[in-house]
Amino acid sequence: EIVLTQSPGTLSLSPGERATLSCRASQSLSNTYLAWYQHRPGQAPRLLIYGASTRAIGISDRFSGSGSGTDFTLTISRLEPEDFAVYYCQQYGSSLTFGPGTKVDIK
Amino acid sequence: QVQLQESGPGLVTPSETLSLTCTVSGYSISTGYYWGWIRQPPGKGLEWIGGIYHSGNTYYNPSLRSRVTISVDTSKNQFSLKVSSVTAADTAVYYCARWSYGGFYDFDWWGQGALVTVSS
């Protein structure tokens, strides 16, 4: 099973700042089946990025994904108030797993 | 737009079977895509449970396979989850979602989630 590690666990930033979230896989994701989700309390998770770097329909261009192999990054260029949430990465290899999440909270 | 809604008992007795149904609107299950279940225990992260195609083909998380059954009813545009022999560790918010199996394997539409508590 491929294990995903996300860092940092919590990221404290102010609106307007740039957020950089990391997701590391225990084995190389040869087909780059890596997705990112935003999860606000009491709401359904929302798909942001799939295929490591493609924005989902309706997602702001403030969100961008990059990476390959074992190291992936989600960048939020300028934090808006609605961006403070928990972010999960998810991979599909031989099975499907999620990372433990990074909480982005207001500094 | 695709909408999913989970339904089922919010309280289940230990050792019994947890049952949830996901009703899909805005998209016919028979058209395509897989349909999945994901859960989130209180204070923890997301865990994939499994998924199903309209043909009935299924994939399960190996760690839950022995206790989980996912089924589909295309006539009602629904799919369902059963988890047997539940314990307190199965207490979670259960989400259903559309799964891009064979594409990029992401979940692009989600239900709001249903809290299921396992307690006597």
Quaternary structure classification: heterodimer
Note the total helix count of chain B: 0
Instruction: Give the strand content of chain A.
Output: over 45%
Q: Report the strand count of chain A.
A: 10
Rg result of chain B? 13 Å
Order of helices and strands of chain B: EEEEEEEEEEE
- Major sheet attributes of chain A: 7 strands, mixed
| Helicity of chain A, as a percent range | under 10%
> What is the gyration radius of chain A calculated from CA atoms?
13 Å
* Structural category of chain B: mainly beta
Summarize the helix and strand pattern of chain A as letters.
EEEEEEEEEE
Mean pLDDT of chain A: 95
What does this structure look like?
The complex is a heterodimer of chains A (107) and B (120). Chain A has 107 residues and is mainly beta. Chain A is 0% helix and 57% strand. Chain A has strands at 4-7, 10-13, 19-29, 34-39, 46-50, 54-55, 63-76, 86-92, 96-98, 102-106. In chain A, strands 2, 4, 5, 6, 8, 9 and 10 form a 7-stranded mixed β-sheet that branches. In chain A, strands 1-3-7 form a 3-stranded antiparallel β-sheet, with no helix packed on it. The radius of gyration of chain A is 13 Å and the shape is globular. Chain A starts with a strand and ends with a strand. Chain B has 120 residues and is mainly beta. In chain B, the strands form 2 sheets. In chain B, strands 2, 4, 5, 6, 9, 10 and 11 form a 7-stranded mixed β-sheet that branches. In chain B, strands 1-3-8-7 form a 4-stranded antiparallel β-sheet, with no helix packed on it. Chain B is globular. In chain B, 0% of the residues lie in helices and 50% in strands. Chains A and B meet through strand 4, strand 5, strand 8 and strand 9 of A and strand 10 of B.
